[in-house]
Design goal:
Length: about 325
């Protein structure tokens, strides 16, 4: 039997994380703050260090492949980064080739939303379903889609950018440059911006007393403590999520929608309102589609990309 060990690397705007994985089980994991300033060369050095650390004690021959997921858009058919808005100088970088040249192992490069969707489908909340939409609501709003028992890739592997359909004619500007995208309304960044404005309006309220920048997590904490302004912000966030999820439910007819990302830490505060919005807006047969929190926490992407490294070979 050939080895099942793979390495998963999750490159994010703030953290690079790596894990050595044995068929859905994390054997070792490490992370570092992303060296964003030095472009791909700086981050590749972090990859090599993290791989040394998570693979220590294992022979190279025991490693079957390496999977790397990153924010996109990226072309997973060529392993080339098209652009990473949060990281400078990655445009056109051939990430798959660079890692393969170093280790001479099969390397898979995938969008982080698609990788996390795969993780949740194989090992988390989507297990056993043939149709699933995954949405990660954090700094941005990304995701991935499983249809007919297969991970959807689309042209150049860029399918499932669920955050960038337009919800309104007017609205906040999105990280992609457009106006009124789902992400621009419902990401953790958008929630944090609304919370920042409320903090200034109510300097003596929960948000007004936060030291430093007000972020989505403060809204969740404040709502839990009973602060009315935070509760109203959470209701508004749930409204936007409900509208976006209703659109995704009509598009893909999933068995369920799985919500991950930092904002899903407050899932229990939002689930009732999300449900009510879907009930109000969805066509009859779609109303019953459940929305559930991710089952793997912040490991969805790592487990997903490590599993994808196992089943592809290029
Ligand atoms: Zn957008």
């Amino acid at each position: 039997m050939s080895s099942k060990l793979t390495v998963g690397i999750d490159l994010g705007g703030t953290q690079v994380r790596a894990a050595l994985v044995d068929n859905g089980r994390i054997l070792a994991r490490e992370s570092k703050p992303t060296n964003a300033n030095d472009g791909p060369e700086g981050v590749l050095k972090q990859f090599w260090m993290l791989m040394d650390e998570v693979c220590s004690g294992h022979r190279k021959a025991a490693i079957a492949g390496i999977g790397i997921c990153a924010p996109g858009p990226l072309d997973s058919t060529t392993g080339e980064i098209i652009e990473i808005p949060t990281l400078p100088r990655w445009e056109g970088f051939r990430l798959r080739d660079a890692v393969r040249d170093k280790f001479d192992l099969p390397v898979v490069v995938e969008n982080d939303g698609i990788a996390a969707a795969y993780g949740e489908w194989r090992f988390g909340s989507g297990r056993g379903h043939d149709h699933m939409v995954y949405a990660t609501v954090s700094t941005g709003l990304g995701g991935g889609v499983v249809v007919d028992g297969r991970l959807m890739h689309g042209r150049r592997g860029m399918g499932g950018h669920v955050g960038h359909f337009r919800m309104a004619e007017d609205g906040p500007r999105c990280s992609c440059g457009a106006i009124g995208c789902f992400e621009a309304f419902a990401s953790g960044t958008a929630l944090g911006n609304r919370a920042q404005a409320k903090a200034q309006e109510h300097p003596l309220g929960y948000l007004g007393r936060v030291t430093g920048d007000v972020a989505a997590r403060h809204v969740v904490e404040g709502a839990r403590s009973g602060d009315e302004v935070c509760r109203a912000l959470i209701d508004e966030e749930a409204e936007y999520l409900g509208i976006g999820f209703t659109g995704l439910i009509h598009l893909f007819s999933p068995d369920l929608v799985v919500m991950g990302g930092g904002v899903s830490q407050g899932f229990e505060l939002m689930s009732e309102r999300i449900r009510a919005v879907i009930d109000r807006n969805a066509m009859g047969p779609f109303k019953s589609v459940p929305v559930v929190p991710a089952g793997l926490g912040d490991s969805s992407g790592l487990l997903g990309i490590a599993a994808l490294a196992q089943c592809r070979d290029d």
